[in-house]
């Protein structure tokens, strides 16, 4: 019998891609989700959140390898501890955890510190593991900043900082390879990035070229960003996490380019240009009566 794999976060940016790749490869898996109705047809789903240890233990009983993804949120350390303990109690044999590039318990940036602390819990849990540490996804220009781009201007407190954006589909490629042969990657901390680092201004020129419409980047202060987020009703935790993310970019901590994707898949990563070509319909405003979006 093959490995029994559980994929968590299967409806998110990375999870969706991973589910698609597992299906395409014809590999068995179970998708553990809070929202089964959002899973694609034909996917075996299991209703699960990270809130209850006993339910987690029960769910993990039939799992050999766990793909563990967790959004950034206030109680995430406690949740992660629950997940790791339940996995150990149920005999899960390997955990591939989604972390962040630069994650460390000593990081000055909150989002990296949170991941670093949880990574450490896993490292010391005794469960064989690997850590997937992607840089920011290119898809953030769709899901995160899509509305701003449709309106023509992206305001962010990132100065002229650069990021080695990675396509979430590439991160899913790496995850798939690891989940097929987890023990070959045991204890590895894998930074996954695109082929080069881009500033926001450079990224927006590439998007603008594709859609023949100019979209501009305007660097703003943290104070200005906070005011906008407060007006939008963002809570303190979300604001602190986002500020730490933008600060890391502004302070030049996200431009590192890694060769892990190439090493693991034997191919170069998708370029930002290719991403823009394939996704351009997301940045073209919908005209009345005309369905332009995919
Ligand atoms: N976005 C990036 O650029 C990026 C880059 C590197 C690393 N990461 C890391 O990837 C992780 C996911 O971040 P993301 O922004 O990419 O998230 P996302 O795509 O929006 O996915 C999050 C998924 O987590 C699941 N989930 C489980 N418990 C949840 C809860 N209590 N609240 C909300 N969702 C819950 C949800 O799936 P179900 O509804 O199916 O349960 C959701 O679809 C984070 O740890 C982040 O630090 C993100």
Automatic annotation (TrEMBL):
InterPro entries: Ergot_Alk_Oxidoreductase, NAD(P)-bd_dom, NAD(P)-bd_dom_sf. It comes from the Bacteria. Residues 9-182 form the NAD(P)-binding domain. PANTHER family: PRESTALK A DIFFERENTIATION PROTEIN A (PTHR43162:SF1), PTHR43162. This is NAD(P)-dependent oxidoreductase. It comes from Bdellovibrio bacteriovorus.
